[in-house]
Design a protein that fits this description.
The protein is of the alpha/beta class. It has 12 helices and 11 strands. Strands 3-2-1-4-11-10-5-6-9-7-8 form an 11-stranded mixed beta sheet, sandwiched between helices. The chain starts with a helix and ends with a helix.
Length: about 325
């Protein structure tokens, strides 16, 4: 099976040659760059990441932060900022507020976190009066390229929602399904994770899993195939699922792993990254625009992959708006 068909299909394949970074870059190649407000790019990693993404033709960055600090970093790194717009504000909090305002004014189509804390940026995003809220709960997805898994694997939510309730999990699930569809997985398989495969009243995540599956049956969650509770081994290993006699359209071939809480998701994603050599792009969904969220520990490939995911999301949104207008 070709890499292209591996990305388009949610069926398991034998050849684990999937290269998520390559596929993302290929998918973005024919697309115009998107305008991204880069929030407080006042260190070497955040500024060079934005410029590298611009050089790759993924984004047109608008650098929002203290101009003197941004220019000092650029000089230290040998970066030419002449082609790029700088919006001068006095500190990181003002940068977050101004970047959100740029989106509201239609001057940016996505946000990119720079050298400020995630909470500081998201506080402005969810501000009821001036933010970018929608009816949907915002959530984070790791889009993971795991060397031992034959297709993209989305882990959610390991960065934003600490202990989501059932309503929040429904939104987290829907956000991830819609992301998977943008990644050309037409009907993603969602494994709702817990420690066991059976409903146990003493383990709340198993109750939530069962409820989410019934919500999908009733059309409250759409676009995906859900099953849970499933333990991690049953979700990603056909052999483990067969051993435990689990008959399921999801078991062993999940596209999305919906975790019980932030701790589980964060640990899982970092285990895959540092022990299984996975690469994990990061994106926040559920706001009016995608938010590119990366870590200082991320490689350049991962940072570019995160930008590429945002490009695909923005172009999908543009197509929806055109279709709605027609």
């Amino acid at each position: 099976m070709s890499r292209q068909s591996a990305l388009q299909s949610s069926a398991p394949v034998e050849d684990n040659s999937f290269n998520g970074y390559e596929m993302l870059m290929e998918a973005c190649a024919p697309l115009d760059p998107i305008t991204v407000a880069v929030v407080h790019p006042c260190d070497d990693i955040s500024l060079t990441s934005a410029i590298d993404a611009a050089r790759e033709g993924l984004i047109t960055p608008v650098l929002v932060g203290p101009q003197a600090k941004i220019k000092a970093v650029a000089e230290a790194e040998g970066l030419d900022l002449t082609p790029y717009r700088i919006v001068d504000v006095e500190h990181s909090h003002a940068a977050a507020a101004r970047a959100v305002e740029l989106v509201r004014l239609g001057e940016a189509e996505a946000l990119m976190k720079g050298s400020l804390h995630t909470d500081e940026l998201l506080a402005e995003v969810v501000n009821k009066a001036t933010g970018l809220r929608t009816d949907r709960r915002i959530s984070h997805c790791f889009i993971m390229d795991v060397p031992t898994y034959p297709k993209p694997l989305i882990v959610t939510d390991g960065a934003v929602n600490i202990a989501p309730d059932l309503k929040a999990k429904a939104d987290i699930c829907q956000n991830a399904i819609e992301l998977a569809q943008v990644l050309r997985i037409e009907q993603p398989k969602v494994a709702i994770l817990s420690a066991v495969e059976t409903v146990n009243p003493d383990i709340p995540s198993t109750i939530d899993a069962a409820a989410l599956c019934k919500m999908a049956d009733r059309g409250q969650i759409v676009g995906g195939v859900l099953d849970g509770p499933l333990a991690l081994d049953n979700a990603i290993s056909m052999e483990a699922a067969r051993t435990k006699k689990i008959v399921s359209p999801v078991a062993g071939q999940a596209d999305i792993l919906l975790v019980p809480d932030l701790e589980a998701g964060n640990i899982l994603a970092k285990q895959l990254t540092f022990l299984a050599r996975a690469e994990a792009a990061g994106i926040v969904l559920g706001a009016r625009v995608p938010i590119i969220l990366t870590s200082r520990a991320d490689t350049l490939r991962v940072r570019l992959a995160s930008c590429a995911v945002a490009v695909l999301l923005v172009h999908a949104r543009r197509r929806r708006l055109v279709a709605a207008a027609d």
